[in-house]
Amino acid sequence: MASSLIDKYMRETHLPHIWCAGCGNGVIMRDVVQAVDNLGLAQKDVVIVSGIGCSSRAAGYLNFDTIHTTHGRAIAFATGIKMAKPDLKVIVLTGDGDATAIGGNHLIHAARRNIDLTVVVFNNSIYGMTGGQFSPTTPTGEFATTAPYGSIDPDFDIPTLAQAAGATYTARGTTYHVQQTIKLIENAIAHEGFAVVDCATICPTYYGRKNKKGSAVDMLKWQKENSIPAQKAKQLPPEELAGKIVYGELFRCQRPEYTRQYETIIQKARGGGV
Ligand SMILES: Cc1ncc(C[n+]2csc(CCOP(=O)(O)OP(=O)(O)O)c2C)c(N)n1
Ligand code: SF4
Ligand SMILES: [Mg+2]
């Protein structure tokens, strides 16, 4: 991260960070900060909310109003903040386990309401913090501490899940595609409605080691060589997309946003109209 960004956006009192050498979390955290900076948002107007996990530690390192909540509940806390202060930009930083296992219900119901939150999922396909258990995004057949013979569970595609539940903006970035991921997060923050950016990141310590993916550099090279831009993917048959990361903007639409709808209810109640 450029030193100007570090000075402005990092709580240096909370460093050094806990992440392993080669972890992708710092790259995604930097992408979020760069997106906020590119949009010219004032720090006082941005709230960062996280759950629990390696990735969720990011909230502690960032110099905004931040809240590091309980495992799986980041979106629930973020919903409360947004309902109380609809003018704030509320950004949720969450892991794949946090967002889609214990927190899966919060994800789908926030999507259903189309509340104006930006959810950035640090998706390393595993529970990093607790020792490498498989998560809802561990690809079928891959290994984890709790899947020593390979996982038999089908894995979630997070943007598809979010879209099906009602999200109005979905995208996927990767640790390798820094510039594209910054832009996707910018678009998600600017979008009025529930926005999810699934960021494929690398955990060399657990996912990498359990699945013999090599070093952090090898894992980044794998991302580079196995990613397909969303526009190109539209022209390819499903068999050519198997095992690939499709990155870019995936879905966008407009429909009424929840806190705006709630404001009309407040006005009706004040005017005695209900
Ligand atoms: C209620 C509750 N259940 C379980 C845990 C233990 N726990 C902490 S982090 C975590 C999983 C983290 O995985 P993920 O969200 O993917 O984040 P990562 O560490 O991979 O970034 C679990 C199960 C907890 N802290 N609280
Ligand atoms: S365990 Fe994995 S996700 Fe957690 S800090 Fe280490 S490399 Fe990153
Ligand atoms: Mg994870």
Any overview of this molecule?
The chain is built from 13 helices and 8 strands. It is α/β, with parallel strands linked by helices. Strands 2-1-3-4-6-5-8-7 form an 8-stranded mixed sheet, with helices on both faces. The longest helix is centred in the N-terminal third of the chain and has 14 residues, at 25-38. The model has no long low-confidence stretch (mean pLDDT 97). Bound molecules: thiamine diphosphate, iron/sulfur cluster and magnesium ion. Thiamine diphosphate binds next to helix 5.
How many individual helices? Answer: 13
Straight-line N-to-C gap: 52 Å
Shape assignment:
globular
Instruction: Show unreliable segments.
Output: none
Largest β sheet strand count, sense and barrel closure: 8 strands, mixed
Bound small molecules, deduplicated = thiamine diphosphate, iron/sulfur cluster, magnesium ion
E-strand count: 8
Q: What would you call the structural class?
A: alpha/beta
**Strand numbers in spatial order across the main sheet:** 2-1-3-4-6-5-8-7
SSE string, helices as H and strands as E: HHEHEHEHHEHEHEHHEHHEH
Report the average pLDDT across residues.
97
Report the radius of gyration as a whole number of Å.
18 Å
Provide the β-strand percentage band: 15-25%
Quaternary structure type: single chain
Proportion in helices: 40-55%
Give a quick precis of the structure.
The protein is α/β, with parallel strands linked by helices and 274 residues long. The protein has helices spanning 3-9, 25-38, 58-61, 74-84, 96-100, 104-113, 158-165, 178-190, 204-210, 216-225, 230-233, 238-241, 258-270; strands at 46-50, 65-68, 89-95, 118-123, 169-174, 195-200, 227-229, 245-252.
